[in-house]
Amino acid sequence: MRRVFFLCTAMLLAAEVYAQPRRLSLNEAIQAALENNADIALAEETAEQAKARAQEQRSTLLPNVNAVVSHTSRTVNLGAMGIRFGGFPGLPVCSFPNRCWTSR
Questions:
Q1: Which residue in 6, 13, 61, 67 has a CA-CA distance of 20 to 30 Å to 24?
Q2: 3-class DSSP assignment, residue 18
Q3: Is pLDDT of 17 > 60?
């Protein structure tokens, strides 16, 4: 089994080595060079990093907005306070404390 695998692999590699080179037109060669040029890829990445740094610096000029919203629900036992309503053992109370502030 290993020999068959080895022979198949060797044949595939040999086919790649002895394959005829592909003929390119001038435009195709230029396009391939532009797509595979490491200097161009590095320049594009450097430009993206510069844009990100500029955006990060501009973000310090914007205000910082914070907001907090919470909800509390509880039932007050009126009977423990000595208040008696016919058939109402307690009174539901809801509160929504909200806060919002900005800073620079």
A1: 13
A2: coil
A3: no
